Amino acid sequence: MDKASVYPDMWVDPGDDPRNTDGRSPDGEAETQLEFIRDYRSTLRMKCEGLDAEQLAMRSVPPSMMSLLGLLRHMVEVERDWCNWITADETRPSLYGGLDAAFSTSGADADMLARTWSDLAAEQATTDAEVAKYEDLGTRLGESQIAVRELQIHRIEEYARHCGHADLLRECIDGRTGQ
Fold first, then answer.
1. Bias category Basic and acidic residues: which stretches (predicted)?
2. Please, what sign has the CA dihedral across residues 103, 111, 50, 52?
3. Would you say 114 and 53 are in contact if contact means Cβ atoms under 8 Å apart?
4. Is the pLDDT of residue 8 over 80?
5. For 114-129, what is the mean pLDDT?
6. 128-164 burial string, b = 16+ CB within 10 Å, else e?
7. Does residue 128 form part of some domain?
């Protein structure tokens, strides 16, 4: 991935940034929440672009077990967990051994990486579809009776925190910094 040309410290030029809304903000609380979730998801993808499976699996901030691949796999588990919170269906089991177990991967290949990206897209779509069933953000869901609004804010918080981790991990891998 080439660096941006307008601002060299950025990942993409402002005109090419998929998160750029040309200054138009979304209408309403639910739409604003969804835009933040989409933008943080895009940011996490951007921080991983241009790296191969081995680089993504690199634990670049010892003694932490965290890697970019671990973050991706963790977010798969988190999305699945959130969906389990809000559905009455039988709990779907972990894909990688649990939220923190997702970080235990120390090596990777292209197939594992492709599966991880596919799993992440599938889990995001499942959670999004479940949340989309509820127009009233005050609706309480699942055994915990979490409000849709609280779940959405929690999703934003989780992605935002891990995008910060991704910034540091990526910088340690190849020096890349920016938006």
1. 16-27
2. positive
3. no
4. no
5. 96
6. eebbeebeebebebeeeebebbebbeebbebbeebbe
7. yes
Least confident of 17-26, 71-80, 107-116: 17-26
Q: What is the pLDDT of residue 93?
A: 94
| Alpha-carbon distances, residue 148 vs 83, 98, 154 (angstroms) | 11, 23, 10
Q: State the amino acid at position 113 in one-letter form.
A: L
7 domain-assigned: no
Spatial neighbors of 165 by CB under 8 A, at least 6 apart, are: 66, 71
Tokens of 56: 């993504």
**Residue length, the chain?**
179
Query: Any idea which residue has 């993808």 for tokens?
Result: 45
Please provide the DSSP assignment of 64-108 as one string: ----HHHHHHHHHHHHHHHHHHH-SSPPPPPSSSSTTGGGG----
Instruction: Name the 3-class secondary structure at 112.
Output: helix
140 strand-pairing partners = 147
Determine whether 117 is exposed, middle or buried from the number of CB atoms within 10 Å of its CB (0-12, 13-18, 19+). middle
How many domains does the chain contain in total?
1
